[in-house]
Amino acid sequence: MNPIALLDYAGVAVFAATGALAASRKQLDIIGFLFLASGIGGGTLRDVILNLPVFWVANSSYVLICAAVAVLVFFAAHRVESRWKWLLWLDAIGLAAFSVMGAAKGLAITGSPVVSVITGVLTATSGGILRDLLAGEPSVLLRPEIYVTAALAGAAIFTAGDVTGLPPIFSELAGFAAAFAVRGGA
Amino acid sequence: MNPIALLDYAGVAVFAATGALAASRKQLDIIGFLFLASGIGGGTLRDVILNLPVFWVANSSYVLICAAVAVLVFFAAHRVESRWKWLLWLDAIGLAAFSVMGAAKGLAITGSPVVSVITGVLTATSGGILRDLLAGEPSVLLRPEIYVTAALAGAAIFTAGDVTGLPPIFSELAGFAAAFAVRGGA
Amino acid sequence: MNPIALLDYAGVAVFAATGALAASRKQLDIIGFLFLASGIGGGTLRDVILNLPVFWVANSSYVLICAAVAVLVFFAAHRVESRWKWLLWLDAIGLAAFSVMGAAKGLAITGSPVVSVITGVLTATSGGILRDLLAGEPSVLLRPEIYVTAALAGAAIFTAGDVTGLPPIFSELAGFAAAFAVRGGA
After folding, report:
1. Least reliable range by pLDDT among A121-130, B25-34, C105-114
2. For chain B, how far is it from start to end, CA to CA, in angstroms?
């Protein structure tokens, strides 16, 4: 498994954990629904908009990861909750990874830098937005403008690098670092 | 028309009725929008995720059923409202039918039991979730965890039956009965 | 560029402006997200439901128009806000244009008048509904029943005209005028 695919799984798992925590904080039992929304919501929207097979329909191990995270958080929510800070950083990793991978998929399919930036932002942010809509919270982890700005930075810098012909790994790391810095620095 | 197809139409009609009742309870005039959301929302999401033609685009009689229910409820809302209990049971039928049919469609297209369970849950629950989001209600009929649990039971038992080679009609009835029991028993 | 295509761009721009104003009124910084939702949300849902390539993925100039409107409103929000009345009329133009174009696309793809009316209503209203859900407002510009009724009038009259064999430009203008009259007259 290459590093980027590993980040993809990690992003799904981390966002699933934030959904499970949101459910736990509101004392909801619909844990599964919320972390599915968080973990696979953004990538689902991306694939539907790009008219691609939805990633977890093609490869259901993503759903199993979400389910495994659910069980873990269900038995360890108290412990994870006290590690809120740790989770904030993991969430920043997920956001940064998804902004780059959403943009990469959009750019590969359409060749359009504009579409690439938009799919990067949508992939990174819409899972969390859906989670907050369903949980009836305005925003769980952070003020939304930082979220969107960080995703925009990651997607735009990756896209700019890729369009100007930099090696993919370099564009990916630069986009990831930019999104992580904006999100983590806030 | 076979029994399952009949249940499909019945499910759409019953969920359309719950949407119209939600609109009536909040004294909204956007009845049509709410019961369209309730009646065809879940199946639309299922078909989009599975990359299939959306069922009511391929066969618009589903929309006409929703419209017919709208007119009926518009002229009889007072009467139906006093039969709340009766509607709760109909809603349980719709939920049970959609959890099985959503799973069956997911399984037929992908062959993956995991995807089958998820599409069953999404089909049965997302129409009602969309209705409540649009109506600004936390939950109209029941606490959401029962809703999701019932759909999960129906989809999982149908899928388990089908994967282990039971005759379709048996898996369908077992899944339907499980979802109906969890939902109706709560 | 023919007149209808011009209206298409105008509708996207006008709805983008209403999203940016909604963000400005709530003092949100996620302007971009809200006006993307408003400007391209309805057409995205339409294309996904009809299983067509999403219009702004195929032609990213729509996104650039949204971005240009964002910058304009960002520097002129104060001025535009004082021209609220003027915006209400522009919004009526966007609604009327989208109800006709959504119906036209649905009818061209499926040949079904029922689907045509539904896609017209969804295209014209769902961008604004998404905007209000994300902004946490019940309704920014007007009570929703007028919004849905106006879209229904526009889509139904266009569809009726087109099905009965009237020249397209006549059906389009009649539908546009009907939606505009219902929306603007309220």
Report:
1. B25-34
2. 32
Q: Given CB atoms, is B50 within the 8 Å cutoff of chain C?
A: no
What count of residues does chain A have? 186
Q: Is C60 close to A112, i.e. CB distance below 8 A?
A: yes
Q: Which of A145, A152, A159, A163 is the best residue to mutate to test the C interface, defined by the most C CB atoms within 10 Å of its own CB? A: A145
As a whole number of angstroms, the distance between CA A17 and CA C19 comes to: 31
Share of chain C above pLDDT 70, in %: 78
Contacting residues of C for A48, CB less than 8 Å apart: 48
For C63, the closest of A51, A114, A144 (CB atoms) is A114
Q: Which of these, C29, A54, C136, lies nearest to B52 by C-alpha position? A: A54
Domain spans in chain B, listed from the N-terminal domain onward: 3-185
The pLDDT score that the predictor gives to residue C163 is 94
pLDDT at C142 exceeding the cut of 50:
no
Contacts made by residues B9-12, CB under 8 angstroms, sequence distance 24+:
B9/B61, B9/B62, B9/B65, B10/B93, B10/B94, B10/B97, B11/B93, B11/B94, B11/B97, B11/B98, B11/B101, B12/B39, B12/B40, B12/B43, B12/B62, B12/B65, B12/B66, B12/B94
What does the pLDDT look like over C73-85, one tens digit per residue?
Answer: 767 766 665 666 6
How confident is the model at residue B138, as a pLDDT?
62
Residues C18-54 have pLDDT tens digits of 777 777 776 666 666 666 777 888 899 999 999 999 9
**B19 contact partners, CB below 8 Å, separation of at least 6:** B31, B34, B35, B36, B37, B38, B39, B131
Q: What is the DSSP code string of B109-168?
A: HH--HHHHHHHHHHHHHHHHHHHHHHHT-S-SSS-HHHHHHHHHHHHHHHHHHHHTT--H
Higher pLDDT, B72 or C35: B72
| Tokens 């399984």 sit on residue | B107
More confident residue, B25 or A164: A164
Residue C30 and residue A112: Cβ atoms within 8 Å? no
**What count of other Cβ atoms lies within 10 Å of the Cβ of residue A26?**
13
Q: How far apart are the C-alpha atoms of B149 and B147, rounded to whole Å?
A: 6
Contact B106, B119 (CB under 8 A): yes
- pLDDT of residue C94 exceeding 50, the answer is yes
Calculate how close chain C gets to A139, using CA atoms only, in Å.
11
Q: Is A185 on the interface with C (CB under 8 A)?
A: no
State the greatest distance between any 2 C-alpha atoms of chain B, in Å, as a whole number: 49
With a cut of 50, list the residues of chain A below it in pLDDT.
140-142
Q: Please, is C74 exposed, middle or buried when counting C-beta atoms within 10 Å of its C-beta (0-12, 13-18, 19+)?
A: middle
